[in-house]
User: Which sequence fits this backbone?
């Protein structure tokens, strides 16, 4: 999931928006700025959720693995699991 | 940089295309990686290899993200398309502009050249020669050339105008696409400029249907949005209709993403406000924790100070440590408001019901504002239940803070928990902003503003039936209650308790537009110093007329420290009226409940010393054989 979140980090070139002079027009520049700013916010929020999902899934898997390992150890030691 | 009429092609098409390319690449990457991975994750979670409940929750979360990612991809592609088209149009305009510029340069050059020829300066102005002109042919040729040059320049001006129109059209088309649904999803039409023109009522309509993410984006991009609701609140009846027309998903999104507005918005059902205010309490806790982090830095920076001589680093460290302790207490209180289990009698059955967290109807840490409902809310409507027959709104007095508000709520809870209450009495304790502290209490302007806020709060009180609403104002809270009544607060009964006055500038019950004709009661114990400044006003100071002497008020007896027991002694002063065993608090309960109350036993003049001018009065309640004069509490039409 971490890999999936990476592309959502839009980077400076996208968030720079149209403040750049090459667009040459005030209305277009500000419209592009606003559109880009809204999108950047959406991407950041989605990226945070994806990263959080990834962390939770990883924690979940690690817990299962740890439980498995504990159970295997107990069985190998001839003890009944509680 | 902006284009001008004579430079309509300003801008760099390559730069615009570069911006388009970045967006298209971003869209492609998102589609091939993030979107695919999310879809795969959802599919995997639903597969037979992972069957736990966590799989369902994981899949739901991941699936919920897909629409947002798709909006991002579509938006990037839409913008890329708009920018490419724009670049092509700008390029075209530039080509045409160059041609027009050449034409203009040539014509201007011709004109200048012709004007410097032998006849150029006179060809156009000199009258026809009266005698044969040896240079007639040449003169005519120059004249014609000048006409052509000037005509060309006129055409050039028309072309510049045309190109300016083309550029404006190109701009408009690009802006329209960049602001379209394709580019912005549901946020189309909700740009900063558009939002700034909307009233708060109009804003609410626009929020319908937005996801929590989208509302959050709006807030991030328009930080003044929430403040607008505080300074220009929409009409409560309109809010109520708007909220009830929203779907459950929209309501949840608003509670999650805009809690500071929803938690404090009159017209939203109390149950939903309570949910929103849990978020606001968490935000308040986070703010306090951040303050502690900053204070710990001060403690650390001053850890070597002696702290024994009252100055230098030791004093700074001690001060920071004291503040940290106070902030921790406040965090503990906030946590209690959010998480504590409380039990109330169910108004429908009378049986105790336990709920998690307090019913917080107002919470704004930054504005020092809070209000708590003591009692059960209707689980279906989220409002005051039908079984409640009397709702008291208690406004405490000077020095009330978020730190000691709990003590004020306990006073309200005493009424709710009274043995005679079968669930038909509920209370709201209100502190809708920073209350006066210490000497500020004298400011009528301050209590008046709070009163206006209380009147606004009153608009949000939604009753299931014809339950009675009773206002109770204590000390400076009495002045706030009076100011609220002047601002239109609707009540069935009003009770001024040890009050500072009827409200800044108010001297007659007729000045209360909605409550002039409802019963007004007052309580003030002997020896309460607040009786003396009542009625005095100078500039911003003072709180209007006295609730003890103004026509229309019914003054009630404050009685004994233990109700019905003359031997316990008489209640005296400003605060003893809250004694849980005393007569006064029972009188308050009876005003709320609409039972019988004891009228004030007026002392009578015995004598006046002619030398000192001091008068001696009877004290009827302490005299043997005193019989209380009881009357029924009157109702009143709101």
Assistant:
């Amino acid at each position: 999931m971490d890999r999936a979140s990476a592309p959502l980090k839009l980077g400076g070139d996208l968030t720079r928006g149209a403040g750049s002079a090459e667009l040459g027009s005030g209305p277009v520049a500000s419209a592009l700025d606003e559109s880009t700013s809204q999108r950047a916010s959406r991407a950041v929020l989605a990226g945070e959720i994806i990263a959080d999902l990834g962390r939770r899934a990883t924690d979940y898997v690690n817990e299962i693995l740890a439980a498995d390992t504990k159970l295997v150890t107990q069985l190998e030691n001839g003890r009944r699991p509680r | 940089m902006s284009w001008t009429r004579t430079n309509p092609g300003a801008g760099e098409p390559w730069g615009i295309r570069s911006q388009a390319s970045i967006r298209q690449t971003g869209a492609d990457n998102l589609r091939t990686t993030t979107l695919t991975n999310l879809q795969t994750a959802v599919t995997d979670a639903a597969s037979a290899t992972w069957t736990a409940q966590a799989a369902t929750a994981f899949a739901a979360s991941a699936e919920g993200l897909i629409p947002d990612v798709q909006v991002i991809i579509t938006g990037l592609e839409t913008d890329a398309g708009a920018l490419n088209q724009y670049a092509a149009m700008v390029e075209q305009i530039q080509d045409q502009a160059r041609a027009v510029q050449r034409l203009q340069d040539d014509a201007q050059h011709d004109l200048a050249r012709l004007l410097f020829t032998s006849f150029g300066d006179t060809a156009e102005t000199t009258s026809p020669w009266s005698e044969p002109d040896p240079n007639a042919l040449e003169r005519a040729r120059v004249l014609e050339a000048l006409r052509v040059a000037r005509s060309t320049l006129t055409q050039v001006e028309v072309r510049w105008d045309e190109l300016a129109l083309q550029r404006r059209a190109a701009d408009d088309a690009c802006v329209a696409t960049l602001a379209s649904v394709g580019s912005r999803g549901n946020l189309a039409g909700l740009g900063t400029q558009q939002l700034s023109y909307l009233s708060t009522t109009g804003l609410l309509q626009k929020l319908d249907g937005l996801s929590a993410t989208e509302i959050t984006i709006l807030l991030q991009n328009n930080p003044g949005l929430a403040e607008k609701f505080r300074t220009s609140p929409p009409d409560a009846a309109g809010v109520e209709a708007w909220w009830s027309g929203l779907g459950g998903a929209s309501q949840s999104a608003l509670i999650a993403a805009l809690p500071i507005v929803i938690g404090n918005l009159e017209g939203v059902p109390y149950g939903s406000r309570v949910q929103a205010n849990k978020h606001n309490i968490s935000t308040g806790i986070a703010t306090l924790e951040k303050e502690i982090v900053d204070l710990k830095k001060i403690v650390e920076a001053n850890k070597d100070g002696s702290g024994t001589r009252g100055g230098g680093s030791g004093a700074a460290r001690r001060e920071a440590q004291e503040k940290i302790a106070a902030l921790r207490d406040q965090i503990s209180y906030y946590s209690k408001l959010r998480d504590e289990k409380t039990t109330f009698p169910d108004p429908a059955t009378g049986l105790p019901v336990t709920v998690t967290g307090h019913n917080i109807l107002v919470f704004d840490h930054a504005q020092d504002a809070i209000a708590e409902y003591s009692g059960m809310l209707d689980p279906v409507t989220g409002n005051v239940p039908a079984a409640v027959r009397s709702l008291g709104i208690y406004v405490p007095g000077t020095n009330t803070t978020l730190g000691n508000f709990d003590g004020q709520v306990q006073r309200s809870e005493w009424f709710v928990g009274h043995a005679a209450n079968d669930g038909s009495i509920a209370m709201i304790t209100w502190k809708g902003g920073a209350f006066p502290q210490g000497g500020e209490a004298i400011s009528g302007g301050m209590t008046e503003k709070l009163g206006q806020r209380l009147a606004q709060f009153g608009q949000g009180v939604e009753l299931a039936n014809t339950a009675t609403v009773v206002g109770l104002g204590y000390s400076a809270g009495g002045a706030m209650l009076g100011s609220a009544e002047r601002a239109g607060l609707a009540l069935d009964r009003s009770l001024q308790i040890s009050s500072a006055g009827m409200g800044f500038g108010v001297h007659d019950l007729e000045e209360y537009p909605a409550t002039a004709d409802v019963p007004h009661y007052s309580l003030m114990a002997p020896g309460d110093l607040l009786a003396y400044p009542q009625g005095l006003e100078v500039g911003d100071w003072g709180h209007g007329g006295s609730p003890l002497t103004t026509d229309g008020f019914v003054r009630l007896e404050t009685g004994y420290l233990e109700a019905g027991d003359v031997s316990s002694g008489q209640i005296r002063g400003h605060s003893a009226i809250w004694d849980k065993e005393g007569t006064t608090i029972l009188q308050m309960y009876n005003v709320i409940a609409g039972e019988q109350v004891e009228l004030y036993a007026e002392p009578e003049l015995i004598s006046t010393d002619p030398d000192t001018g001091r008068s001696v009065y009877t004290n009827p309640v302490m005299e043997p054989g005193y019989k209380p004069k009881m009357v029924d509490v009157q109702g009143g039409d709101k």
